[in-house]
Amino acid sequence: MQKPGYYGKWGGAYIPEVLYETFKDLNAAFAAAKADPTFWQEFVDLMATYSCRPTPLTHAANLSRDFGGAQIFVKREDLNHTGAHKANNVMGQGLLVKRMGKTRVIAETGAGQHGVATATMAAKFGLECTIYMGEEDVRRQRPNVFWMEKLGATVVTVTSGSKTLKDAINEAFRDWVSRMDDTHYVMGTVCGPHPFPEMVAWFQSIIGIEARAQISKQFGKLPSRVYACVGGGSNAMGIFQGFLDEPQVELIGVEAGGHGLDSGRHAARLASQDASPGVAQGYHTMFLQNQEGQMMDTYSVAAGLDYVGVSPILTDLWEQGRVRFEAATDKEVMAALELTMKREGIIPALESSHAFVQAYKEAPHMQPDEALIINMSGRGDKDIFTIAQAFNDPSWKDFIITKGAEYAA
Amino acid sequence: MQKPGYYGKWGGAYIPEVLYETFKDLNAAFAAAKADPTFWQEFVDLMATYSCRPTPLTHAANLSRDFGGAQIFVKREDLNHTGAHKANNVMGQGLLVKRMGKTRVIAETGAGQHGVATATMAAKFGLECTIYMGEEDVRRQRPNVFWMEKLGATVVTVTSGSKTLKDAINEAFRDWVSRMDDTHYVMGTVCGPHPFPEMVAWFQSIIGIEARAQISKQFGKLPSRVYACVGGGSNAMGIFQGFLDEPQVELIGVEAGGHGLDSGRHAARLASQDASPGVAQGYHTMFLQNQEGQMMDTYSVAAGLDYVGVSPILTDLWEQGRVRFEAATDKEVMAALELTMKREGIIPALESSHAFVQAYKEAPHMQPDEALIINMSGRGDKDIFTIAQAFNDPSWKDFIITKGAEYAA
Amino acid sequence: MQLEQTIRAELAQPGKDILLMTHIVLGYPSLAVNRQVIKQMVANGVELIEMQIPFSEPMADGPTIVRANQEALEAGTTVKECLAFAAEMAREHDTTFLFMTYFNILYRYGVEAFFRKAKEIGIKGFIIPDLPPEEEEEFWQLARQYEIPPILIYAPTSTAQRMQELAASAEGFIYCVARKGVTGKQTDFDASFADYMARCRRSTTLPLAVGFGISCREDITFLTGHADIGVIGTATINLVDAQGPEAVGPFIAGLR
Amino acid sequence: MQLEQTIRAELAQPGKDILLMTHIVLGYPSLAVNRQVIKQMVANGVELIEMQIPFSEPMADGPTIVRANQEALEAGTTVKECLAFAAEMAREHDTTFLFMTYFNILYRYGVEAFFRKAKEIGIKGFIIPDLPPEEEEEFWQLARQYEIPPILIYAPTSTAQRMQELAASAEGFIYCVARKGVTGKQTDFDASFADYMARCRRSTTLPLAVGFGISCREDITFLTGHADIGVIGTATINLVDAQGPEAVGPFIAGLR
Ligand SMILES: Cc1ncc(COP(=O)(O)O)c(C=O)c1O
Ligand SMILES: Cc1ncc(COP(=O)(O)O)c(C=O)c1O
Fold it and tell me: Exactly one of A86, A102, A163, A166 is catalytic; which is it?
């Protein structure tokens, strides 16, 4: 039998000894929760009354017609409380924290989405909360910092390394090894040491369970393809789990192509030739690193995809050929975002827009009696600073210049 | 029998002759839709698959405990697609527009929420869209303008009058009298000439229908009190309709107290002594106007409550004593907002926060076996510019100053 | 009754194929200028003058008149002053004066009190664009009682049936809006306009006024034969803004 | 085996109640400075030197060492250079050198190749803070094969049972982390610390090193009797940063 925490040769728990007991307890608590059907029910109830699960599956009728191919369905994780799928994982881990009797949570955040979700959960559950965020991301995502603080969290700016997500993860571990007794580290994606990949995937599986039931009801059969963007891989794993046991459903993960796979400025691990196996941040997967094992600077217009590693579960599924990987460039992302807003009235997050790109490329070559599902992991209105800037919107800039001058006065 | 479109002596349809036929057609189309059960079903299905209805009813367990009085429940209209209850009305009118075969919609907007919702609906239904917005509001709510434009709408800045919501309404009417053949005016609240109050109230009644079923299921009995903020009155009418026929349920509308009712800088029509009966913008209600009938400048930190008139249906319910009216000052609003974020992890819109203020004042004096419902009409994260400014957040200001300088360079 | 007779009498005069009704926003740019402008209008033969009492929400007006309303109010113009000014004008000039305003002005003044006052002043009719005959029963009764006809409006969107309905309760004359939209924009006097006027004419025996977008001699020439009264609105406001009140006399004189 | 014997032999020398192990980040601030620092360490009697090969994700290190790793990498320090430098040091100095680094450095180099190279250089042990004995079976086999013991770590959170488990596969010595947290912060040597050390001692016959927060003579004096080796990490980095490499000699000399 496979060692627990391994997916093929990927995964594991490369943790400092000081966390050994903490992980033992966490594994035990998670196993107990998983074995207890009332726990899952408690989770589902919480998500139904505090967030708005089940989130809808929306038929994008206009774009389906425009492309003249597959029927395009969008799984609306953007309608979750706090605006993204991150809420599923965070609320689930929050319930686990309550069971473990811990009183403090910490988390890393890149885009800020996971940080806001964690701060929200901490407020709801009455926990102390500290969020680690790279200096670069603090600069890019000030609105999220504002909300985290208002929700009662302490936001710590991380100035080490590349000052982005991976460095925030390192810093969160450094906090955790100092204060494991009362503190739980709410890992934000299906990465990191076991049991995090399994745990986050489990909580996010609610997406796929719902999507499968919804597509069957709304479309009468399974979709041919399911698309999700892949940063760490949690939203992808979430929806893919609904269809993993159906080999006829093709699963497509879309990574950040940045300025293009040839440019060196991207964050595509599995869709590019640039990644190699490595061990970092507590787990074994494909990393964007140099020959000697030093992690590279990654780049994407979408902060939430701008990460060196990727879920070990997805790496395994990729190696098995079960999940196909593609990349979307920043440019393609902005075009897909614009099209989706104009034709369907929905505003995907920059991260989610990556999945839309690939679906739009493939939909025209599919049949109108086929369906595809795009996992819309989050909403884009939280990204106004990035999006307005990416569109180079002149009146937005004027607005900010005027406001800035007003504040400076 | 009461003349249709009248609520007590309030309401009516004071419209220019050129719109006579348009209103006749609209009344007929609305009556047909109302009489056709498949129409309501189509509406409910649309809201279930495109927005996320039913929106949850969340038990604010922490604050209920803190106050030690009534069990506080929050109806989560913030989780609607586009972030507020405005979506209900807009999508409903959109279905009606499709039935009438019109190809263009126009709307007024104050906070920008109704404008974004209308632009969204127009994108979804493939309609041309123009949004009228006062110059003051464009300045205050640039992010919403950006999204409206990205959603494909034309935003027209209104420079007449006080350059706010009421002037945008006038301007929308001016558009409509020029182009009624292909255009429907999507009125954003339960005001304006008949059939708008009735129509908007009907679409918004989905809130109350759900809330009543939810509180019965989650709490086992009816709430003692239901709170809603009142700008035009659409979210309030929406939730109140679920409980109007239960005299033991007290209904409380909360208006914008601004700098205080004595300050003259507020927008409280029914909770203050400052309003008087009048006829403007096509209907008869209580207006904030001077002795000679000229409308006054109103003020609120919440753009969506900053309006001179109020729903004729609510004015009638107020006159009957069925709805109690209170006002919340800006200061109280910021405190309630902060408390709600910190203790429950939810971020009400500034408008909605008015309802929270009054509920928090009264909850401690109620019994723990009683429930109250607050209608959370929208989410606050759309208001970051106003909220961060109202909190006078220094790092937010620094961020804007830096961004402004960067754009100006 | 009285108003219709006055109009018919004017039209009966030799050479008067069409009457002129002009429009003025009271208090814009000031009552003093209004006084000069009205003087010139009267001197140059205008038969009817519409005096608009400014309102903060002039929903049916176009940008020029909206601005005029707003500036009049910002300058502090009150309804009371407008009434006093109207009384003075009616006293001084042997011209037919009407009030144009929105219903809220009457409502806040007291509808009956407003009729009483208008009667006392010598106002011959009301134009209230936001008051359709379906609303405010009391108002229509008072109109009959005080013999001040509210001028009903026909629009290009009005069906023959609706026109007949309106005609049934109309008095004085009918104000035919030349096109869809608000005041102040140019109107195309094309074939469909002629059809519209024919429809109007068939539906009533009352005199027909045509307004919205009438700004020059050509327009008046075109209207002659179709309509009994040509209404000049925004055009004089623009003229006064651009060239001052003295320009009004020659302008009016040149219209017919 | 060999490492433990070396340590025992040193401890057997008269007056040597405690050994010193110092730490250095290769390439920070430069290999040239590292060379000077090591020279002084050796000259002043340090028995063991931990050479950290810099890694971009030093998850278990505190701010000072994190920064040192980062600056070493930014200055272009490569693993290859570190290995060549280590070979030079081992050749020059008759001191016990260990490699400290994160597992990915070995993994990318090739784990067996890395062992082979380290053996060739004369490295006596590895400290890999992110590699618990549960992971990478092959690594532990190679360690035995190449006779380079990976130093196992005890933490204040380790239970007696866990310590015994670890002791079973440990060789050379055990690195007892003095407190929870990362490198570079002060440690309180209080009663619970003595309890902890007693627990460590009970679980193994191997020599015990104590690290994290050891920075001065008082700390070393306190440790003597509790531990066999005192580990000076961040303290020398701070010293070199503040006063240059020449300050290291006197500092080391003053510790015992
Ligand atoms: C909206 C959204 N989608 C996707 C991601 C990427 O994470 P994951 O791949 O774990 O779903 C993020 C991360 O912040 C996000 O905010
Ligand atoms: C979130 C929110 N709540 C309330 C209102 C007030 O409108 P109403 O009273 O019609 O619900 C608005 C109007 O923009 C709004 O955006």
Answer: A86
Answer yes or no: is pLDDT of A28 > 90: yes
Residues A77-119: pLDDT tens digits?
999 999 999 999 999 999 999 999 999 999 999 989 999 999 9
State pLDDT tens for residues D91-106. 999 999 999 999 999 9
Whole-number pLDDT of residue B1:
54
Q: Indicate whether B344 and B278 sit together in one domain.
A: yes
Ligand 1 atom nearest residue A234's Cα: 10
Range of the domain at A367: 54-83+205-399
Q: What is the mean pLDDT of residues B221-236?
A: 98
Asked if the Cβ–Cβ distance from C108 to B292 is below 8 Å, we say: yes
Assess whether B108 carries a catalytic annotation.
Answer: yes
Q: Are chains B and A touching, using the cut-off of 8 Å on CB pairs and a minimum of 3 such pairs? A: yes
Residue whose CB lies within 8 A of the most ligand 1 atoms, among A81, A82, A86, for a mutation test: A86
CB B271 within 8 A of CB B261: yes
Q: What residues flank ligand 2, with Cβ below 6 Å? A: B 84, 86, 110-111, 113-114, 189, 229-236, 304-305, 349, 351-352, 377-378
Query: How confident is the model over B181-186, as a mean pLDDT?
Result: 97
> Does pLDDT of D186 surpass 80?
no
- Chain position carrying tokens 């070990």: A312
Contact of A148 with A115, CB cutoff 8 Å: yes
Ligand number nearest CA of A256 is 1
On whether residue B159 sits in a domain, the answer given is yes
Q: Which long-range contacts (CB under 8 A, 24 or more apart) does A243-251 make?
A: A243/A208, A243/A212, A244/A317, A244/A322, A246/A222, A248/A222, A248/A224, A249/A222, A249/A223, A249/A224, A249/A225, A250/A224, A250/A225, A250/A226, A250/A324, A251/A225, A251/A226, A251/A317, A251/A322, A251/A323, A251/A324
pLDDT in tens, B136-162: 889 888 899 999 999 999 999 999 988
pLDDT score of A389 more than 80 = yes
Is D167 within the bounds of a domain?
yes
B160 touches chain C (CB under 8 A): yes
Say how many domains are in chain A.
2
Q: Which amino acid is located at B110 in the chain?
A: G
Determine the average pLDDT of the residues in C123-150: 96
Any domain includes C8: no
Cα(B118) to centroid(ligand 1), Å: 28
Contact B124 A62 (CB under 8 A): yes
Interface contact C79-B293, CB threshold 8 A? yes
pLDDT of A1 reads: 54
CA distance A350 to chain D (A): 27
Q: Which chains touch D (3 or more CB pairs under 8 A)?
A: A
User: Is residue B11 a part of any domain in this protein?
Assistant: no
Catalytic-residue membership of D61? yes
Closest by CA to D61, choosing from D26, D25, D109, is: D25
Q: What is the reported pLDDT for D180?
A: 84
Please, are residues A185 and A23 in contact by the beta-carbon 8 Å criterion?
Answer: no
| Residue at which a domain ends, from A196, A216, A241 | A196
Do A209 and A192 fall into the same domain?
A: no
Q: What percent of chain D has pLDDT over 90?
A: 88
C-alpha B234 – ligand 2 centre gap (Å): 7
**Confidence category of residue D185, pLDDT binned at 50, 70, 90:** confident
Residues of C taking part in catalysis: 50, 61
The tally of domains found in chain C comes to 1
Could you tell me the residue range of the domain that residue D209 belongs to?
Answer: 17-253
CA distance B129 to B104: 6
Q: Assign residue A219 the CATH number of its domain.
A: 3.40.50.1100
Residues C70-104: b if buried by 16+ CB within 10 A, e if exposed: bbbbeeebbbeebbebbbebbeebebbbbbbbbbb
State how far residue B279 is from chain C, nearest Cα, in angstroms: 5
CB nearest A79 (choices: B79, B345, B382): B79
